[in-house]
Amino acid sequence: MPLYEHVFLARQDLAQGQVDALAETATKIITDNGGKVVKTETWGLRNLAYRIAKNRKAHYVLLDFDAPPSVVAELERQTQINEDVIRYMTLKVDEHEAGPSVMMRRGERDRERGERSDRGERGGFGGDRGERAPRPRRDEEVEA
Questions:
Q1: What pLDDT is recorded for position 121?
Q2: DSSP one-letter code for 140
Q3: Rounded to the nearest 5°, which phi and psi values hold at 136?
Q4: DSSP single-letter state for residue 103
Q5: What CATH architecture does domain 3-113 belong to?
Q6: How far apart, in whole angstroms, are the C-alpha atoms of residue 59 and residue 2?
Q7: What is the pLDDT of residue 103?
Q8: Residue 19's pLDDT band (boundaries 50, 70, 90)?
């Protein structure tokens, strides 16, 4: 059977239990139609790159599964009907990733290093917010 990854984004105002129930519903659709869920990961509440349906954040959930193509059609049909899901994407993959996904490893790596992300220090001026070297006035500028 072909291998798939299905990622969906749930509304930000849902509780974690409701998000888990959405994942269970998707799992049930897959198993009832002859597929097998290999892995389910909840990535948590994350910021969106842009606002979707008045949501600035969303709960991310990943499902890795093996199933015939008809299961994918049914899963996407049911996901499209659900008002709690704001976006979804299903990809056919050659093989499932062993162990935790890249998103889960990234969170573990940041916790080990005690950092928030790879972006470095914020502010751009090398100090605390608001600290900037004063600009010289026109009469103090050095002539070259």
A1: 55
A2: G
A3: -70, 145
A4: H
A5: 2-Layer Sandwich (3.30)
A6: 27
A7: 75
A8: very high
144 vs 106, residue with greater confidence:
106
Q: Cα(64)–Cα(36) distance, rounded to whole angstroms? A: 9
Burial group, residue 4, by CB count within 10 angstroms (0-12, 13-18, 19+): buried
Q: With beta carbons less than 8 A apart as the criterion, state whether 3 and 94 touch.
A: yes
Which two structure tokens, joined as six digits, stand for 107? 């969170």
Q: Which of 22, 67, 69 is nearest to 42 (CA)?
A: 22
Span 29-63, pLDDT tens digits: 999 999 999 999 998 899 999 999 899 999 999 99
| Sequence spans of domains, the chain | 3-113
Amino acid at 122: R
CA end-to-end span of the chain: 73
CA distance 5 to 28: 16
Q: How does pLDDT run across 67-122, given as a tens digit for each residue?
A: 998 999 999 999 999 999 999 999 998 887 776 777 777 766 666 666 555 555 55
Cβ(33)–Cβ(74) below 8 Å = yes
